[in-house]
Amino acid sequence: MSGQLRVGVLASGGGTNLQALLDHVHGFEARIVAVASDKADAGALERARRADVPTSVFPRTAFPDREARDAAIAEWLDAQGVELVVLAGYMAILTEGFIGRFRDRIVNVHPSLLPSFPGLAAVQQALDHGAKVIGVTVHFVDEGVDTGAIILQRAIDLPPDADAEAALTALRPIEHALLPDAVRLIATGRLQRDPANPRRVLVTD
User: Fold this and answer.
1) Which of 69, 75, 107, 142 is 20 to 30 A from 154 in CA distance terms?
2) Which helix (H) or strand (E) holds 50?
3) 91 and 13 Cβ atoms separated by less than 8 Å
4) Is 110 a catalytic residue?
5) Dihedral angle at the C-alpha atoms of 183, 184, 186, 192, nearest 10 degrees?
6) CA atoms of 40 and 45, how far apart (whole Å)
7) 26, 110, 139, 176: which is the annotated catalytic residue?
8) In whole angstroms, what is the distance from residue 55 CA to residue 123 CA?
9) DSSP-assigned letters across all residues of 127-195
10) 169: Cβ–Cβ under 8 A, 6 or more apart, which residues?
11) Cα–Cα–Cα angle for 157, 90, 170, nearest 5°?
């Protein structure tokens, strides 16, 4: 892929994963050109503004339904020339229309070793299940809940006597490393689907 990949980020919270992208790929292999949120007070928006990245807010209450909101977000991302959408702590479920519009161009970071423990409260699910290792997955987004093809994963031993907050804290540096790595691989054209198994994503040299 020539030039810098134009990336749009959706975030609902403080934006630490957005910051990792701004620190490690923005202005290099990729450029963050848009940050949108469903929450006007999301810390991610301020991080974007400090980096001179255009922002917009799409609160649920401003639209008649999720389809209308997602259509508005998609229109705005398209207007910014976004080529890849990154979900960085975005807590709203995307509609099929949005996913179809950006087919194979949406990635998400999830705090578990998928396919184990998809959905909300993944770390608490792992703790409740008695898991010995936890980890982070970056994956493509499809219409299922954390069911898209896996791009990168990394595991760590579950810290002894850890609660969900401590486990999430241990995982955060891994999220901050893997998400930029995945965007870098996409930006440099180093990912491809295995012809024998489309669910398998291969990293090429």
Assistant:
1) 142
2) helix 43-50
3) yes
4) yes
5) -120
6) 8
7) 110
8) 30
9) HHHT-SEEEEEEEE--SSSS-SPEEEEEEEEPPTT--HHHHHHHHHHHHHHHHHHHHHHHHTT-EEEET
10) none
11) 20
pTM of the model: 0.95
Q: Identify the band that residue 168 occupies on the pLDDT scale cut at 50, 70 and 90.
A: very high
> Using one digit for the tens of pLDDT, what is the confidence trace for 28-82?
999 999 999 999 999 999 999 999 999 999 999 999 999 999 999 999 999 999 9
On whether the CB atoms of residues 21 and 179 are closer than 8 A, the answer is yes
Q: DSSP code of 101?
A: H
d(CA 71, CA 125): 32
